[in-house]
Amino acid sequence: MATIRRIHKITDEKFLNMYILEGEKKTGAPMRYQLASRAGRVEDLKMKSQKKDADAVIVYALYAGEEAFDSKDEAACQSLRESADLRVVMVRQYRAAVDSFVYELPAGLVDPGEDMRQAAARETFEETGLKLDILDVDPIFEKARFTTIGMTDENNGIVYGYAYGLPDTAHEEDSEEIEVILADRKRVREILAKGKVSMPTAYQLMHFLGEGDPFAFLS
Questions:
Q1: Pairing between strand 155-164 and 56-63?
Q2: CATH code for residues 56-218
């Protein structure tokens, strides 16, 4: 196993920082590795803190219409999931990393003092104008996991639910450029075939694309 001897923080930014890891490979040869992290300090890196809470949250939500929706109403939930007009809540958002618009599920960082579910509801409203009724699921489906472990220690959790209301982007931040999309299965297939899509979004959309209940895997 490789050994990390020294960690150097080389940037001091609000949302993302770069670190250089130095040590030895398993062969004893010198190792130098670049790491991007949400951590603002060396001691907050996952390898140091062993933190398991989510840095960010992704929201996989079905659109339940304009009126308030209760996920505890099992009959209403089943009727919605079996509807021919079933739609998933998505955003098409400008991403500077690729200088282009990318299809995603609503998502964002968990703010200090928030838990993952609170962040999910806030981000859904900020990005889409919709309110979120969150499903209670087995924790293994919400658990925070690493996203791109080859370059960052960021981990994301996923929250599932039903979104309702009228879509708008009046609450987006000035750094965001977002289009709200309520996509049926035909549109989702087109997006997966031709669009630029984030990997976590693509994985969840494949559940939505299949025949039957798009939340069946949560049972």
A1: parallel
A2: 3.90.79.10
